[in-house]
Write a structure and sequence with these properties.
Chain lengths: ~140, ~400
């Protein structure tokens, strides 16, 4: 367990979501976390920044500073915004190598959100992660 | 409370219920009756064999059962003879078979007419055929309720129309299409008519001769049967106009290295080993369905559908897509993203579909990016809908 290396936002997510009782509280938390996403400008919600493979529209922007990757993401669906926020909490600030090996399934399972990653879900969290890895590999 | 006397014929319903799941996605695929499960088990435990090839006893048994389903389907659809029934690997494959089989009859500048509500399976094969032949794809518009606009169709179907392909029942809108008035417009121009009955056959017995179509397509898995089996009915004269499209296996009559002769329909269009168990299973499903009280079944489905539509209509901010006649209802909720709603319905164990329902161009015309669809089968009951509405209310409370 690489506990010490987890960023503060990730630890906060663990505290919040592992304490959630039931689907309603989880949903409320997701919506709250979704509100914390850094907003995107209209011009950034472009076709170029759009992640393919998501049923709802999702935009992703990556930038690199000192070999660490910073992401901003947004969606029109509120619960998906929450899922993006907890994904960002785990991966933001990683370098390309760590980004390639991060176990997102394990992360979502830990938060009690593992079902949101199943292949039949069209929400596209998996597509978002692939896009992050592709952007970081460029 | 509206209960379904047929629910216990479907073992999966009790399993789902025990897991807290309510199944309202039968338009995607239906649950299977015990009669099917027993038939599949029976076939595999008593000796599998390939059909139309060997002389041994198990091959003879398999071939007889396989051909028995063809005969049952012919009578189910009121075809003139069993040889008008072709087995494919799905409804989509049946429609592709038609689009390739008819290719030689389509010239540059010809027209292929479809409707604005077609599932991708009855759009893309024709779109691609039109592109291959430099023909035009003509899209017949809908009226507000979601039925084909017959006045517009009268204008748009003309002497260059070679094919009309239309759904019997929309998988998004739940609207039954006025085929008895639409098909004659195409026939008057000498066009071939194709009916996509994938949804329609599940909710109404269809007589292909009274419908007057040249081709009729259905999907086994939506009709309570196994996956991997589609059915293409073709009027004998219409089938004779199709070119062979897949090659190999017993579809050949005479093969030499440099040329070959092929069988006529149906076997000439069944290249390779067909889905034998699936076809036999579908036969068992037809026997099961045939033994049910059709009037009671239709009345039950009608009452369920009324409950669904009325329940949606009495809730604030819900917009139905079209005016559904039966089987299903698709809707959006003002200010609520369908993906959010579908997420929270799933959390509560309600199985519905959300998204574009394999009909992206239709969604575009309706001006929505996605919708939730609840669809019914005769094994559903009033309690299923109560759970659904309760889950819907709780989800909307959270989201609004």
């Amino acid at each position: 367990m690489n506990e010490p290396t987890l960023p503060p936002a990730a630890r906060e997510a663990i505290d919040a979501f592992t304490g959630a009782a039931g689907w309603e509280q989880r949903a409320r938390l997701l919506m709250q976390w979704g509100e914390r996403l850094e907003p995107l400008a209209d011009s950034e919600r472009s076709d170029e920044n759009r992640v393919r493979g998501c049923e709802s529209q999702v935009w992703l922007i990556a930038s690199e500073h000192d070999s660490r990757w910073h992401f901003r993401a947004d969606s029109e669906a509120r619960l998906l915004r929450g899922l993006l926020a907890v994904l960002l909490a785990r991966v933001d600030g990683l370098d390309a190598q760590a980004l390639r090996t991060v176990d997102v399934a394990e992360w979502f399972n830990r938060l009690g959100l593992g079902r949101q990653l199943s292949p039949s879900r069209a929400n596209g969290i998996n597509a978002v992660l692939s896009r992050m890895q592709a952007l970081a590999a460029r | 409370m509206l209960s379904s006397p047929w629910r216990s014929d479907f073992p999966a319903l009790a399993v789902m219920e025990a897991q807290g799941e309510v199944y309202l996605d039968s338009a995607a695929t239906a649950q299977k009756p015990q009669a099917l499960i027993s038939a599949l088990t029976g076939y595999y435990t008593s000796g599998a064999a390939n059909v139309h090839r060997a002389q041994h006893a198990s091959a003879e048994r398999a071939t007889r059962a396989f051909e028995g389903t063809r005969t049952k389907l012919a009578s189910w659809l009121n075809a003139a003879e069993p040889t008008e029934i072709i087995f494919t690997r799905g409804a989509t494959e049946a429609l592709n078979l038609l689009a390739y089989g008819m290719e030689a009859h389509i010239d540059a500048g010809d027209e292929i007419a479809i409707t604005a509500l077609e599932h991708h399976a009855n759009l893309l094969p024709w779109q691609q055929l039109a592109q291959r032949r430099n023909a035009h794809l003509v899209v017949l518009p809908l009226d507000k309720a979601g039925h084909i606009d017959l006045e517009a169709a009268t204008q748009l179907i003309g002497p260059r129309t070679r094919v009309l392909a239309a759904s019997q029942l929309s998988n998004v809108l739940g609207t039954q299409q006025p085929l008895h008035r639409l098909l004659p417009l195409a026939k008057a121009q000498g066009a071939l008519t194709v009916v996509d009955g994938a949804q329609g056959i599940v909710h109404q017995r269809t007589d292909v001769r009274s419908l007057g179509c040249d081709f009729y397509v259905l999907s086994s898995h939506k009709l309570y049967g196994p996956e991997g089996v589609g059915v293409l009915y073709g009027r004998r004269e219409a089938l004779a106009r199709l070119r062979h499209w897949q090659f190999g296996g017993e579809m050949v009559q005479l093969a030499e290295f440099q040329h070959a002769q092929f069988r006529p329909a149906p076997l000439g269009f069944e290249a390779g080993t067909p889905p034998i168990a699936g076809v036999i299973g579908l036969g068992a499903v037809l026997d099961y369905l045939g033994g049910l009280d059709q009037a009671a079944l239709a009345a039950h489905e009608h009452r369920l559908h009324r409950m669904l539509v009325d329940g949606l209509a009495m809730r604030d901010g819900i917009r139905l897509l079209g005016r559904p006649d039966c089987a299903l209802a698709s809707f959006t909720v003002e200010g609520v993203h369908p993906a959010d709603l579908s997420h929270l319905l799933t959390e509560q164990g309600v199985a519905v579909r959300s998204g574009t329902h394999c009909a992206m161009p239709l969604m575009g015309r309706l001006g929505v990016s996605g919708a939730i669809r609840a669809s019914l089968a005769f094994y559903n009951d009033g309690a299923d809908l109560e759970v659904f509405f309760c889950a819907l209310d709780r989800a909307l409370e959270l989201l609004r």
